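Researcher: I'd like a structural prediction for the single chain below. Treat it as a standalone chain; there are no partners to consider.
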Amino acid sequence: MKFPSKTEVLFSVKSFAAAMLALYIAMRIGLPRPFWALMTAYIVAAPFAGPTRSKAVYRFGGTFLGAFATVLIVPAFANSPELLSLVLALWVGGCLYVSLLDRTPRSYVLMLAGYTAGLIAFPAVDNPGTIFDIAVARVEEILLGITCATVVHSLVLPQSFGPVMLARLDKALRDARNWIADALAPNGDVNSAGDRRKLAGDITELRMMAVHLPFDTSHLRWTSNAIHALQERLAAMVPLLSAIEDRLLAMRQLGALDAPDTSVRWRALLADITAWAATPKGETPSDPQRLRAAIDELAPAPTRHANWLELVQLNLAARLRALVDAGVEAQTLRRHIGAGAAGALPLEARHLPGVPAHALHLDRGMALVSALAAVIATLAGCAFWIATGWPSGAAVPMMAAVMSCFFATQDDPVPFIKSFLVWTIYSVPLSAFYLLAVLPALHSFEMLVLACAPVFLLLGVLIARPATFGKAMPFMFGIAGTLALQDTNTADAASFINGTLAQLAGLALAVLVIGLFRSVGAGWTARRLLRAGWKELARMGDGRQAPSVPEFSARMVDRIALLTPRLAMAGAQQDLQAADALVDLRIGLNMTQLLAARHELGRSQAALWALLEHLAQHFEARPRHDAQEDARLLASLDNALRSVSAAQASTARRDALAALAGIRRDLFPQALPYQPSPVLEKEIR
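Model: Treating it as a single chain, here is the predicted structure.
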């Protein structure tokens, strides 16, 4: 094991101090389960003040809601154990379902509300008359642990979340600049695919991290709107850069980048945009208006007889201009964020519209399956407890419910629950030593602190490390949960063995039930992500859904970030490896442009509606392929191109032609070039 860093040591010392402070106060004021306060102080602890505060707020909200539900449920169904078990299981599953539909750390509130009801209710079903007092005591103990952790981590050498957030933000901008340089290389670059994956991952990670910003101790907490806006600009760059790469490839295939009369001007423009985007932080970039003018000068004027190369260049010019616009906005927002971090956030950056969290990819079907698995696991634990009459059996459904919720976001939660089970077992000998040998020999709080320090300080260092967090946290849970037996005056060998076996049985039950009803592979999840994108495109085609461009882009980029690692884990499954969600993203953005421009295109609307209907049918049938249907769709695309080319000149006409050229290139990259003349079309047929 490597030597602890200063940051890890500081986190461990502060976490231990907060836990001991919570334990001391709980004992002094006579709370019934003071070791719950200790455990809570470790659960909400984070290396930075912002996440600690946010976790504290979310945990208190979830605990209060779960306790409130317990007070309502237990007295109402106390006379019917079976019905009480069903209601509690449904509460756990319902809270988990709703929490999985919120892709931010805020989801912790409802998830915690679900299994907190089980933590409070199951051990108290034998004495329902005291459920209110027990619920209040649990809330007090948890609130005490939350408060102590928040105070210590916020006031004692607080570690601001701001610098980490800014570093991740600059990394995302750096990855975007790298992709721009690779994508705009006239001959392409092999590093482009890696740049794309990095940027998609950066955007999703930034969205999750930004939720903690309002709780940070630095001035950066006032810049959350600007940071969300910058994330949206980065998300908009993903389909733009992907389309630019493909259009440059098309121009190379058509020989345009080899022709002396056009290649020199296009290469010079691409080099200028690359140099402009690579302007170092702190330096003023060159005037983007010059780049826009150069793009407009190179873009061919759309005419009735525009050929395929001209349409590809028209699409490329539109995407380059949009890229410059997104880059200008990103640079401006980064300067605003830097000023905000210094305490001088400009007024125009305080109230920026943003994409809501619910605009991200949501898998309601998988959330429902996860909730049902939690209900089944909880009910199975209750049935085992009732059937055996085991006095310590309350821990079986309790732990099954907790584990079903903890790892519900994973494709296959079983390995994680197994790891939790293994490291809980590893903690048993040390837990027994503390409970049966150390605690009975202690007669003062100071001695308790000294006895706990070696183990808890070491665990604190391991919890601070992402590589060992998943092992150290269940180990700490095992020890702290065992020490809680001291609270109930059952610190004897029989109670320890019964309590430990019940907890392990609950974990094993979760492994069994989740393995049967919930575990899926990476390939299965990847297919669901792809189908979700196809269904959305089908809804757009038939007019059922016309999302805003920022929302659609954010959702599809989020799907790409979720899809990329799963495609890698899916193995040699060619149907998945051949699927390119970026193509779907580009098509979707082009479809939104068509929907926005169609009302200004006069008679061409009929051809566009026919095309959108064909596109809807195409994506509804995915992943199946029909050669005849593909031929009809290609003919519909060409017909729409001819119709729009004949429309009256306008900005909408230019945008529609660029969008149609993009859709044709994305769907049929190997097709023969578009022919503007209907006579030639008959000859081809």
